[in-house]
Amino acid sequence: MIKNISYQQVQSWQSEATLFQLVDVREASEHEAFNIGGILIPLSEILKEKDKLEINKPIVFYCKKGIRSQIAIQKLTRYFPNADFYNLQSGVSFLQNKNT
Known about the structure:
This protein is α/β, with parallel strands linked by helices. It has four helices and five strands. It has helices at 7-15, 28-33, 67-77, 93-98; strands at 3-5, 21-24, 39-40, 59-62, 85-88. The protein has a five-stranded parallel sheet. It is globular. The mean pLDDT is 94.
């Protein structure tokens, strides 16, 4: 089962200096146009780039609507079954719409 996290909770973790990693699984052009921070590992590269993941702490994956990030978690769970993965609920599309 994939754990979801709200953007408000992510902001809370950031303000409390909670250690976690933020990973954008969208394409580079999407990341450049709008992002909430973190590293970029496009979904198409997620397995090749899995060594960039800091699996010793929680990892929040995000995309536009929360679909690609769920797929990334499903793929990575096979390699890291005990990792603490979170899906940013609803993705960043609602934030992007606020800022445009």
